[in-house]
From TrEMBL:
It comes from Streptomyces flavofungini. It catalyses: N(6)-(dimethylallyl)adenosine 5'-phosphate + H2O = N(6)-dimethylallyladenine + D-ribose 5-phosphate; 9-ribosyl-trans-zeatin 5'-phosphate + H2O = trans-zeatin + D-ribose 5-phosphate. This is Cytokinin riboside 5'-monophosphate phosphoribohydrolase. PANTHER family: CYTOKININ RIBOSIDE 5'-MONOPHOSPHATE PHOSPHORIBOHYDROLASE. Belongs to the LOG family.
Length: 249
């Protein structure tokens, strides 16, 4: 083959789809740079590498959930304590959704999420947890049968909507509100159709509903019909009946 160092530099260089000529030719090859173990590691923090991580998260999520049967995503506070009425309501909702033929998807954490996963597991249903990397992350709760952990919120949120036929939203904080208004926006803008959203707990959600009606709608920032995008109830049976009816089950 001869000594590569003795060969004259090429006049044209092909780097995948890129062609370089004259003084734009770079030394070495892509494989050579890949296999070279020396050099800094700053490249793992660059935006192109982040794009690959984001892509891999979508691929992993799609692969793990592609064969999931009809499912409902249940949201609520990670701070809900076991034994409280809210926690027990989450357990009952998880069980009732399984009895209605749904898998149950949550954020995989403690509190209300754990309650819904527990109810689904106790009813011998499919219990799914979609976790997120956080500084105070506690890991997936023990009642999750299929778990996927994500780095990026927006990838995780896509999975919540793509693989669910509706949302049941228990009392929760900022993360719960984020998921709720994301879903409302997608339905309002018709990015998704036939997507029921049920808020569980009239006392908890009443103030928000009043604000939407008396301030947001009243000032023309939303229309009156937008208040029909969700339902509010205190009854487990009604919550399940609403999501079942709207998805045509």
């Amino acid at each position: 083959m001869g000594n590569p160092e003795a060969q004259s530099p090429p006049e044209e260089q092909h780097l995948g789809p890129v062609v370089r000529r004259r003084d734009q030719i770079t030394p070495g090859t892509t494989d050579q740079r890949l296999l070279d173990t020396e050099g800094d590691t700053e490249w793992v923090h660059t935006d192109p590498w982040r794009v690959m991580r984001i892509q891999s998260e979508f691929v992993e999520g799609f692969g793990a959930l592609a064969e999931l049967p009809s499912a409902i995503s249940v949201f609520g506070s990670a701070r809900t304590k076991p034994g409280t009425p809210e926690y027990e309501a989450g357990v009952r909702i998880g069980k009732a959704l399984v009895d209605a033929g749904f898998a149950v998807i949550t954020g995989g954490g403690p509190g209300a999420m754990e309650a819904a996963n527990k109810g689904a597991r106790e009813a011998d249903g499919i219990s799914v947890g979609l976790g997120i990397e956080l500084p105070f992350e506690q890991g997936l709760n023990p009642h999750v049968d299929i778990g996927v952990n994500f780095r990026y919120f927006f990838v995780r949120k896509t999975m919540f909507v793509k693989y669910a036929q509706g949302f049941v939203v228990l009392p929760g904080g900022l993360g719960t509100l984020d998921e709720l208004f994301e879903a409302l926006t997608l339905v309002q803008t018709r990015k998704v159709t036939r997507f029921p959203i049920v808020l569980f707990g009239t006392a908890y959600w009443g103030g928000l509903v009043d604000w939407l009606r008396d301030t947001v709608v009243a000032q023309g920032k939303a229309s009156e019909k937008d208040l029909l995008l969700f339902h509010v109830t205190d009854e487990v049976e009604e919550a399940v009946a609403l999501v079942t009816k709207e998805v045509g089950r």
